[in-house]
């Protein structure tokens, strides 16, 4: 069960990282 929670956290972190990269690209474009 601990591994399952950890896996979900990893997915959330990856999603957040993707959003940050997207926001940075958007800011650079402006």
Helix content: over 70%
Which descriptor suits the 3D outline?
rod-shaped
Multimeric status of the protein:
single chain
The biggest beta sheet reads: none
Fold and architecture overview:
The chain is mostly helical and 30 residues long. It contains 1 helix and no strands. It has one helix at 2-29. The chain is rod-shaped.
List the helices and strands and how they pair.
Layout (H helix, E strand, L loop, with lengths): L1 H28 L1
Keywords:
single chain, 30 residues, mainly alpha, 1 helix, 93% helix
In short:
The chain has about 30 residues and is an all-alpha fold. The chain has one helix at about 1-30.
